[in-house]
Amino acid sequence: MNKRDSISMSVIRRLPRYYRFLGDLKKNGITRISSRELSARMGLTASQIRQDLNCFGDFGQQGYGYMVEQLHEEIGKILGVDLKRKTIMIGAGNLGRAVAAHMSFNTKGFELIGIFDKNPLVIGKAVNGIIIHDSCELEEFCNKEKPIAAILCIPREATKDIAESLISYGIKAFWNFSHYDLAISHPEVTVENVHLSDSLMTLSYRIGR
Amino acid sequence: MNKRDSISMSVIRRLPRYYRFLGDLKKNGITRISSRELSARMGLTASQIRQDLNCFGDFGQQGYGYMVEQLHEEIGKILGVDLKRKTIMIGAGNLGRAVAAHMSFNTKGFELIGIFDKNPLVIGKAVNGIIIHDSCELEEFCNKEKPIAAILCIPREATKDIAESLISYGIKAFWNFSHYDLAISHPEVTVENVHLSDSLMTLSYRIGR
Hints:
Two copies of one chain form a homodimer. By secondary structure, chain A is an alpha/beta fold.
């Protein structure tokens, strides 16, 4: 078995964070860093960092530390940030528009090529240069452009039906802001959920403890 | 030591999810559920569910299952969702406005009482009935209203200085959408980070694996 196939989700979830921190170090002209220094900056233990990075190859040298640029580039490759996977967004309400305007998809492995909504007030407008199309054009658009990922910024009630359609149009991966648990009904697709309300309730729990 | 003090963050992070699922069951008129049924719906193992819920008290009965309403209410209390902690938002750009319009704070333990921005184009407008104030009024507002939590929807460069000010004005908890790692420079406050780009990069990693 490839070493990378057995990596736990908790290690994988830390990778983007390493990528961000190393990107900052690089930007600040730092070329080399010890796991001890990195641990102080990231709030992880040095041994945790060594263990995590060891899952992906030999990046560090005992007593010498990590080469910032090389490690940043390597983690970027592992994450697939240079890929430009064709992506569509469904839902151009407040949240959809904020995500479309706020995120730089092309440095995260994706290319946003179309936004869809059924609200006539937003159809034809653009967010970040991306046109908002009428949802009824979705099938035709997918047949022609063949996107593989979809961002769902729609109410929960609407998600099941739209997701079924999108899967039949060839979508393989979802970035899901709706509160519908897609991964359970469709184990064949890759789903990354964003539950902002779970994050807020976690803060609620932690306050005062 | 109180049993609850030693609960791991990974259990805590699952609590809001239980709360959501149980809320749905309740809404659908389901009064009782076995850990096996709950596990099928949530995509967790039954033994995981029993272990998690056991951290907080004896909610289930062997061979009988969980009382949905009671368990929902109990988890809500643990999460503190009924508390109305006075909360302010800093930054009324796309993201801030989307979060203010989209989230129901009052069912998650918080009450949004003011939004602040330095952009004259948005000052004086309202989102969801909450007025956007000029950032220069922040200190006065905090002295008067005594908010304890702040939502940061500002660019990373601005975060350090504003966070320092907010802490000096009495803010104890941050819901942080900026990419500045607040928790490391201020271990005395509670910080819950939302890193949308980390989530997107995790999706990038998982596609095709």
